[in-house]
């Protein structure tokens, strides 16, 4: 089961990444926005898709109660804020030496590790705010 979950996590992540990169390409190379502006916008497209697919496909979490969704959204908002700040800081710091696509790809690759831990241990647990009593 765990092996299948990790495979699903990676497939969903690659799919969300591909969508985000397509939007990033369109904004940066097509529309002509700056690297920071392009990433600031494309980031949000990728995260909405990633949340929905990770919840329903990877972690098979189909709970839709208002309290559960509220808790998941609150936890996800904290994770997103952290990921967003890391992303923007990385682009701002490295965009003179690397392409926006390389920077965003590196941040996503590194973030994949901490995101999985948060998803598995807090975000998509059956009862995300209940502490384990073991």
Topology (elements, then pairings):
Layout: H1 2-31, H2 35-58, H3 66-94, H4 100-123
Helix pairs in contact: 1-2, 1-4, 2-3, 3-4
Unreliable parts: none
Q: How many E strands?
A: 0
Rg over CA atoms: 16 Å
Major sheet, described briefly?
none
The overall pLDDT average reads 87
Helix coverage percent: over 70%
Whole-number count of domains: 1
Give the termini separation: 22 Å
Oligomer: single chain
Feature tags:
0% strand; mainly alpha; 134 residues; 4 helices; elongated
Structure description:
This protein is 80% helix and 0% strand. It has 134 residues and is mostly helical. The chain is elongated and about 45 Å long. 24% of the residues are buried. The model has no long low-confidence stretch (mean pLDDT 87).
Overview in brief:
With 134 residues, this protein is mainly α.
């Amino acid at each position: 089961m765990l092996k299948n979950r990790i495979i699903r996590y990676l497939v969903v992540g690659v799919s969300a990444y591909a969508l985000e990169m397509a939007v990033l390409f369109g904004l940066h190379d097509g529309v002509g926005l700056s690297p920071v502006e392009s990433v600031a916008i494309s980031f949000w497209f990728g995260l909405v898709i990633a949340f929905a697919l990770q919840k329903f496909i990877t972690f098979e979490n189909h709970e839709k109660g208002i309290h559960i969704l509220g808790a998941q959204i609150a936890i996800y908002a904290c994770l997103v804020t952290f990921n967003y700040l890391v992303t923007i800081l990385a682009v701002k710091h490295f965009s003179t030496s690397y392409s926006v696509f390389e920077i965003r790809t590196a941040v996503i690759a590194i973030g994949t590790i901490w995101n999985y831990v948060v998803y598995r241990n807090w975000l998509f647990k059956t009862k995300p705010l209940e502490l384990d009593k073991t």
